[in-house]
Amino acid sequence: MSGAFLHTLFDIAAWLAAAAAVWWLSRQRLQFPAQSFELPYIAALVFGAGLGAYLFGSANLWLSGQSGIARSVEGALAGGIVAIELYKWTAGIALRTGARFALPLAVGIAIGRLGCYFAGLDDFTYGTATALPWGHDFGDGVLRHPVQLYESAAMALFALAYVLAVLNRNAFTITNGFYLALAYYGAQRFLWEFLKPYGALIGPLTLFHLLSLSVLLYAGVLLATAPKARPLQNELLA
């Protein structure tokens, strides 16, 4: 079975898992902002995420001395954020609308990164050479950091922590879950970028180092300015 086919299967599994996460949250009787399910909002999100995925993925490929077109999950995340913030600004929406996406984001990345791992060298998401015993040979005879698995495990841990917070009705985590997910993602992604063979942009930092810092900064500002969360019983008022 080809790596590209496996990658596609895991991409589909990631979307299904994200949908399952949305369904599970709906069963928890949490009331998330309705704006995030409106058609114009979803359209802006899909457009921004798609544009960001290809823009940043391809730019990183070119900066690394390779040709072609590529996608990036972090690029999709950044593009989606920018598109939604612009949409909210033009629509006069001051409400924070990302709360429902924390768990779908985490489980989607956790499963999607497995597809990147099985795609092998063609996916260009593998790590640099390592002598560690869990180094993986992707087919070129070089043992490399399986950074896809590092990221998958990290996001799975966040998803587990978030689920526990929901079950315990932790008001701050539920209300600000999306920004917690972004901060966590940006921090762990920044670390893994040091283990990837990407072309540097500023000093030792790659394009995705800078993008990770931008995501982390955005999330940090939103968390620092978050209104005080009200205690939850069976609903979320965000």
Account of the 3D structure:
The chain has 238 residues and is mainly alpha-helical. The protein has one domain (3-127, 135-224). It is built from 8 helices and 4 strands, in the order ααααββαααββα. The protein has a two-stranded antiparallel sheet with strand order 1-2. Strands 3-4 form a two-stranded antiparallel ribbon. A hairpin with a 2-residue loop joins strand 3 and strand 4 (205-206). The longest helix is centred in the first third of the chain and has 25 residues, at 39-63. Residues 234-238 have low confidence and may be disordered.
Which class best fits the helix and strand makeup? Answer: mainly alpha
Assembly state of the chains shown: single chain
Total strands? 4
How many domains? The number is 1
Strand content: under 5%
**Biggest beta-sheet profile:** 2 strands, antiparallel
* Overall radius of gyration: 18 Å
Count of DSSP H/I helices: 8
Low-pLDDT windows of residues = 234-238
From the N-terminal CA to the C-terminal CA, the straight-line distance is: 45 Å
State the shape.
globular
Order of helices and strands: HHHHEEHHHEEH
Percent helix, as a range, is 55-70%
What's the overall average pLDDT, rounded? 93
| Strand line-up in the sheet with most strands | 1-2
